[in-house]
Amino acid sequence: MSLERQLLMGICASPGIAVGPVTVFDRTSVPVPRRRVPEDAVDAEVGRLESAMAAARAEVEAAMEQLPEQAGPDHRLLLETQRMMLGDALLLDTARAAIRERGINAEWALRHTVDAMSARLRAAPEPYFRERADDVTSTGEHLLRVLTGVSRALPELQEPTILVASDLSPAEAAQLPPGRVRGIVTDGGTASGHTAILARALQVPAVVGVSEVTRAVGPGDTLILDALRGHVVVFPEPDEIEEAHERARGFDAFKGRLRASEGRAAETADGVRVGLHANVELELDVTTAMREGADGIGLYRTEFLYLDRAEPPSEDEQVRVYRRVARKMAPRAVTFRTFDLGADKMPRGMRRGPNPALGLRALRVAFVQPELLVTQLRALLRASCEGNVRVMFPMVSGLSDLRRARVLLDRARADLEAEGASYGPVAVGAMLEVPSAVLMADRLAEECDFFSLGTNDLTQYTLAVDRNDPRVAHLGSALDPAVLRLIDRAREVASARGLGLSLCGDLAADPVATPILLGLGLTELSMPMAAIPLVREVLSRLDAAALAPLARRALDCASAADVERMVADELTEALGDLWEGQGIELPRA
Ligand code: PEP
Ligand code: MG
Q1: Is 231 among the catalytic positions?
Q2: For a Cys staple, 526 with which of 21, 277, 490, 547, CB 3.0–4.6 Å?
């Protein structure tokens, strides 16, 4: 590790600036302690190795027992291979011999043995043996974790700190203690991935996709995280630290000015009322949503209830959460999106397929495990007695998905009826986030009550750009004219059929997109809460009536960059200071 100043570029995932000491959460490799073992302690050291092997094997066996029914044969095979490796005589004997003959500690002996074994396998001519090298390495890592006690769990954050992580699963991000995290920096990730979404929900600045940042810093090092410019500075100079503090104060003041409008209804300069709703991942966000003056919750991502636990939440547990939320927001509506598990939100024990975004995700999980969705729907129906509950199905790809989901809703209702349990009415909506759903919107409109455009996925699927792959995510902008045309089509169908249409993807929070969305006729937007004051301010400076021609021109642009250029040319005077406050620099013609 060098102690020299380094500027590392990344992607702004949640705006803001933070300066301070870091906590590093690197789980890509386990540090290996190396020490000599005196002769009289060798037996005990061998004993440590054997116990670690037994403990690791027990962990794998427990995981095999908990494997859900739908787990495929290769998941089982993977665990079986691991189990066999942990009983492998060659591995154990070689590591034992290294401890005895070289007088080194168990971790060191193990690393030595595993490296040698996997190097031999990697050099083998047969692909089968070459592939086994990874199994040996991962078994070695597993054993090292048991031996060193270094777990994959997030470190305890005692003091406010900048968290620097190789990556952060949505479940881990959801566990971060608010108030102790000044900012988040990750090696991987993209602006529309779920770590970014959660960072925005927690209102902490985040820069993601900073390759190798976990290697560049150590615990306690000072870092500047600049999520307006999209970079971090490792070992900054004192004057840089001073400047960063200054910029951070400037950003806070900017946020403060926006907050002056807190609680006011959003309206354009020419009096068009726009519904601003909150996207919520965690129950504790509901209070903040109320404070921000949200008109309702336009997207409650219920899958966060299912993450990082061995069993899915029970019906009663869900009823309690949904009820509290519905009650708190009443009479305003809460749109609960049924679980969108899979892709980058894997519950424990669920296997990642070869192409998760196109695989077993959202409703498809429900169709394989109908009871899981029926339980959730029963909970939502029961909670709907307490407030204005709307049920929204994610990743609807066409009519048959919607119909199958509705059959499960009918079943949940019939079961409650038969049990004499009380339940209330719910409006039923479909997310429009798969292009085929937008193409079929007129038919879907006949069988549901509302639509919500999920532009994060709609962009990924329309442009074939993986939203979670930092190498390509920048190629997929929701301002791409192809995506805008789909939004326009959805709006056209919704108005013709008198159906409610909202937009709950991150585009709703983009102050560059607001004029286009307004010009296309969208008047219901749902976004991370932190963005509500900004979008409210943008709207108050715009004339809705004047924006339709601009939006039409956007549909005819050649690219997202051209759309941005056009918006910049037309509206820098009105909105330039707000864009600048967010660190947005637009291309100009
Ligand atoms: C979307 O895809 O735009 C959306 C809102 O859903 P999520 O980001 O949770 O996939
Ligand atoms: Mg989505």
Answers
A1: no
A2: 277
Judgement on whether residues 428 and 487 belong to the same structural domain of the protein: yes
Of 12, 448, 504, 557, which is the active-site residue?
A: 504
243 and 269 inside one domain? no
Q: Does residue 424 belong to any structural domain of this protein?
A: yes
Interval between CA 193 and ligand 1 midpoint (Å) = 9
- Classify residue 63: in a domain, yes or no: yes
Of the candidates 464, 570, 463, 567, which has an alpha carbon nearest to the alpha carbon of residue 510? 567
142, 194, 231, 277: the catalytic one is 194
pTM of the entire structure? 0.73
Tell me the per-residue pLDDT of 228-274, one tens digit each, with 9 for 90 and over.
888 999 999 999 999 999 999 988 888 888 878 777 889 999 999 99
Which atom belonging to ligand 1 lies closest to the Cα atom of 454? 3
Q: Is 228 helix (H, G, I), strand (E, B) or coil?
A: coil
Same domain, residue pair 255 and 269: no
Strand, helix or coil at 342? strand
279 sits in which H/E element: strand 275-280
Rounded CA-CA distance 112/107 in Å is 9
Q: Which ranges of 422-559 does DSSP label H, i.e. alpha helix?
A: 435-439, 441-445, 455-463, 481-497, 514-519, 532-540, 544-555
What is the distance between the alpha carbons of residues 313 and 297, in angstroms, rounded to a whole number? 21
If one counts the domains in the chain, the total is 3
Tell me how far apart the alpha carbons of residues 1 and 218 are, in angstroms, rounded to a whole number. Answer: 8
Burial degree of 422 (CB within 10 A; 0-12, 13-18, 19+): exposed
| pLDDT tens-digit series, residues 182-227 | 999 998 887 777 778 778 877 899 999 898 898 888 889 999 999 9
Q: Are residues 531 and 390 in the same domain?
A: yes
- Residue at 34 is within a domain: no
Q: Work out the mean pLDDT of the chain and round it to a whole number.
A: 89
Measure the CA–CA gap between 528 and 532, rounded to whole angstroms. Answer: 7
Which residue, judged by its Cα, is nearest atom 9 of ligand 1? 301
CA pair distance 334, 326, nearest whole angstrom: 6
Q: Which amino acid is at 560?
A: A
As a three-state string, the secondary structure of 362-427 is CHHHHHHCHHHHHHHHHHHHHHHHHCEEEEEECCCCCHHHHHHHHHHHHHHHHHHHHHCCCCCCCE
Domain extent for 238? 6-22+155-259
